[in-house]
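pinging the channel bc i need a second pair of eyes. not urgent but kinda urgent?? the chain im working w is below, pasted from the shared doc
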Amino acid sequence: MDIAGSIWSFAAVVALLTLTPGLDTALILRTSLLAGRRPALGVTLGIQLGTLIWGLLTAAGLSALLAASQPAYNVLRWAGAAYLVWMGVRMVMAARSGAEGVPEQRQEEVRFRTGFSRGLVTNLLNPKVGAFYVAMLPQFIPDEAPHAAMGLLLASVHVAEGLVWSAVLIGFASLMSGFLRSPSVRRFLDRLTGVVIVGFGVRLAFTD
């Protein structure tokens, strides 16, 4: 398979992965519905930076070492699970308390930074992303291609598709924001998303 064929084949595979509802989708939709476009953009950029880092680590061979070391994988897996459960519980508790936080303008600014770090940490602490790249990326790198550069290029394709799909999600959430930002709906969405994220954390903890 030549380089162009590898890129198109990889793009088709990660398109299916991108469109499949998961943790990233839940985080982006929740942030966009409850906080607006700017904080949701922060989550999106954090997630995609994490994806790019995993691609770079895979191209450099570092994540292959992680995949080969069960103790290291377990440490990262449990750290990721603990972070997701902590984040989900905080959302549920915030929904129950009904706290509005700081004034709106300052809140949006803080939430952009918080959203970015939340997306980045969530992605980096998910060893399944690294396992996916370890399993899939080498299959799409031709023998004659420089592995580091090709790995970065393929990861960039994944990031580009993720950005496009995230923009669609944020646009949809913006259209629905008038109804979905009422206080009662906001609390329900925060509670629902928190429970879903806790579920992802528990699943990550108990899935090898």
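so Residues 3-69+101-180 form one domain. and Residues 99-110 have pLDDT under 50 and may be disordered. — does that match what u expected or am i reading it wrong
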